[in-house]
Predict the 3D structure of the following.
Amino acid sequence: MNTTASSAPPRLGKVLVLHGPNLNLLGQREPHLYGATTLADIDRALTDRAERADIVLESFQSNHEGALIERLHAARGEDFDFLVINPGGLTHSSVALRDAVLASDLSFIEVHLSNVHAREPFRQHSYFSDKAVGTITGLGAMGYLLALDYIVAALSDNLDPGKA
Ligand code: DQA
């Protein structure tokens, strides 16, 4: 699934959102863990917030590790300022996706809908967290919006409380 969420010229910045395997089933899949919100709902909410902040946002979901890697390779030439990534199960297994994220040279925020630290032990290791600007885990769909809020503040150079 590849949705170009906004085609307006970049003003504040450009953000890539990557959703890993099985996240296309959000809303149907284990709702007690992942909630009732669909991926389309999440992308729509992100798009709305991005447009209000004059940010161009592109969202991409794949169930294929290679497709996610290829998207990151392409992103190298596409002037993105920031990456938001929920690698799904690849969080806990994929050196190759980690390498592709690092090769993109993008600052990134790692998002998980569920609290991975309160689940099975194998979910408590991430191949991404040590390189992330930050991680948001357990706050459901809102985690994506909080990540975008951080990016808006960072791109606005508005993170210093003294400037507020
Ligand atoms: C997830 C957590 C992962 O452990 C799991 O494999 C997922 C979703 C989350 O958003 O909570 O697919 O990344």
